[in-house]
Amino acid sequence: MKFGPGGGRGRGRGHGRGPGGAAGEKFARAFAQAAFEGARGKRRARMFRRGELKLLALHLIAEEPRHGYDLIRQIEDLTGGLYAPSPGIVYPTLTLMAEMDLIDEKVDGDGKKIYSITEAGSARLDEEAAHIEEILARLEGVSKMGEASDGASVRRAMHNLKSAIRIRLAEEEKGSDKILDVTAIIDEAASKIERLK
User: Fold this and answer.
1) Which of 64, 103, 149, 192 sits most deeply, having the most CB atoms within 10 A of its CB?
2) How far apart are CA 166 and CA 73, in angstroms?
3) Contact assessment for residue 188 and residue 182, using Cβ atoms and an 8 Å cutoff
4) For the CA atoms of 2, 22, 78, 192, what is the dihedral angle to 10 degrees?
5) What is the pLDDT of residue 10?
C-alpha cells in the first residue's frame, strides 16, 4: 500500500486540514528549531513517538524491498537532512518487525539483509493508514521548516555525510582499506573547505 508519490511522501501536507494540519505544522516548527539548537549542544529533539518508526519503516518497505541503510537514508531525506535514525535503533526495529511477521528478511547476492512486506504487514498498513499519513505530513513539515532556516543546506549535507559514514563503518571490519579511504576523503574535503576564499 502506498501513501504518496516517490520518496515516501504522503498526501497530508500540513496546511491546517486533517491529521497533518496545525498540530503537525506546530510539531514541525518545534522540531526544526530543536534540531538547529541541538547542533549547538543546547538540546536534542525526539522525532517519533512510540511505535511510529516501525510504522514508517513498514510504509517504506511496502513501496519497495529495502536494506536497513536504505531506510535510514530515506527517512533522512524525508526530513530534509535534519534527522536520521541510528543503525542501533533501526536494525533492532527491523528484527522485531520480522518476528511479528510484518516483514520478510532475506539475504541478497551481496550477503546483506533485505526486507519486504508480508500480508500481515499490508493489513497493518491498512489499519494504521491515518496514523501513517500524520507521520508523513509531520516529516514533510520538518523538511520545509529546515529549508526555511539559515544554513539548512549545510546542515543537510552534514547529516548526509554522518549518515553515510555510520553506515559504511557499520559494514566494514576494523582496519579495512575502505575505512582508510573514507578518512582520506573527509580529510580532503576539510582541506578544500579551509582553502575556500
Assistant:
1) 103
2) 11
3) no
4) 170
5) 40
Q: Which residues of 143-178 are buried (b: 16+ CB within 10 A; e: fewer)?
A: bbbbeeeeebeebbeebeeebbebbeeeeeeeeeee
The runs of H, that is alpha helices, within the chain are 22-38, 52-63, 68-78, 87-99, 119-127, 129-148, 152-171, 177-194
C-alpha cell at 41: 549542544
Which secondary structure element, helix H or strand E, spans residue 115, and what is its range?
Answer: strand 113-117
Q: How far is Cα 106 from Cα 132, in angstroms, rounded to an integer?
A: 25
CA angle 151, 57, 127 (to 5 degrees): 125
- CA dist., res. 181 & res. 187, Å (int): 10
Instruction: Go through the domains of the chain in sequence order and give each one's CATH number.
Output: 18-194 (1.10.10.10)
Cα–chain-centroid distance for residue 82? Answer: 9
| pLDDT at res. 91 | 94
CA–CA distance, 32 with 79 (Å, rounded to integer): 9
Which of the residues in the chain have pLDDT under 50?
1-21, 23-24, 27-28, 31-44
Q: Which among 48, 41, 137, 56 is positioned nearest to 94, based on CA atoms? A: 56
